[in-house]
């Protein structure tokens, strides 16, 4: 299988967030020849949207996605998602990633929480369409169902997309989805229309933390080329976004080293 | 919703394994009026199968399941599963629970590992049928896909059952399956014929360890009565087996206290 096009690499800034703010991340990407970037909104707020837009443009980067909208089971979800759509529009982001939220606080009602998520997405979708910002539902690993996202499979996310129509799709993150026996089938179902983002990292054995122990591509057990083949087979030609939450390893390292390793692993492993 | 029949409570000995051997667990169940028990094979070997059979019978207990066969991706799986079937037969176990094994060692080939699991189950099924031992595939949480079981949803397990025919079903463990958007649908699909065991515990928020941080019923976020309703609705009338791996809490406690709490939570929470 041919290596992916180096111009398709994107850096999700979570990967180096402990050491670099957004301004440094933008310059770092430019310095390392990484063409895509996916910022988080807290970092965007810290830098200021206007400055971020200017710096991203002047460095010739593309925003592969803005992290994140969602959390429809929390209190102020509507205003927060409106602002997220505006910011994604300002950045020219290829999508706004939705981490949809877990159980309604204080509740064990999983089906009810899922219904609320669906209603929340439906409520913000018209504004997203108007702003030209595609919404990307990111199914999160089932171990995050209670706390972060009660959408946990690609099939479930695509059922929501199909119910809601245009302007919405999915973020396919190998960390969250690699285990799913229906992954190939559902990526095919999603097709180019619905796959709005592709996130890469690796599943470590053993995994020591449910949130922040992701691996660099090649250090774990995910068969990355196989999944890439499915995603490309569905017609996806967008960025491959490296997103690594790693308290114990990658967040401790020099970000320049991390970016260098991302690049070389992207070329040889994924 | 009416409380479950107290006579349907079973103790999976993993719940108190740090403090009690099998002989103590059998006597403890009898003392607390718990009518079912599910031993692990290492404890069974330590006690001796004959002694265990004798003690379980004389205390009037039923073996709701033997833990475990499986690990078809490991080396000596065939002999080990033959012995497990013999032991389950000797105990009159209502099923032999199959923890099917994760990735083939040294491999990232998840579809290939799943194929090997299916072939392994097919290979032992005739002997299980001959011995009158139903095999219960236990889908494990996706976070265990690499290391312990590459069967991770009820749908996937039932597809295997349907391909293999009679004498095989599933163990429905709420800890592994509670997050699944298709759980209700697939329990209905399974029906009384395929649901061979029902395991209960709870999902803690936060969960601090991927293996050994399960909660007592009521301490987490699983809506146990709802899932029990689905299982009973499918026609299941067997035991409700408490299985709690808990390094940090329940394994540290006096097993008599643990059994007492299992009983009261079973009556009030599940």
Summarize the structure.
With 270 residues, chain A is α/β, with parallel strands linked by helices.
Report on the structure:
2 copies of one chain form a homodimer. The first copy, chain A, has helices at residues 22-32, 41-47, 49-58, 77-91, 110-131, 154-164, 174-177, 183-194, 224-233, 255-268, and strands at 9-12, 36-38, 62-63, 66-70, 96-99, 135-137, 168-173, 195-200, 240-242. With 270 residues, chain A is of the alpha/beta class. Chain A has one domain (6-268): TIM Barrel (Alpha-Beta Barrel). Chain A has a 9-stranded parallel beta sheet. The model of chain A has no long low-confidence stretch (mean pLDDT 97). The interface between A and B is medium-sized, with 29 and 29 residues.
Shape of chain A: globular
Most extensive chain-chain interface:
A-B, 29 and 29 residues
Q: What is the percent of helical residues of chain A?
A: 40-55%
Strands of the biggest beta sheet of chain A: in what spatial order? 3-2-1-9-8-7-6-5-4
Please, how many helices of chain A? 10
How far apart the termini of chain A lie comes to 10 Å
Rounded radius of gyration of chain A (Å): 17 Å
What would you give as the CATH superfamily of chain A?
Divalent-metal-dependent TIM barrel enzymes
What pattern of helices and strands is seen along the backbone of chain A? EHEHHEEHEHEHEHHEHEH
CATH architecture of chain A: Alpha-Beta Barrel
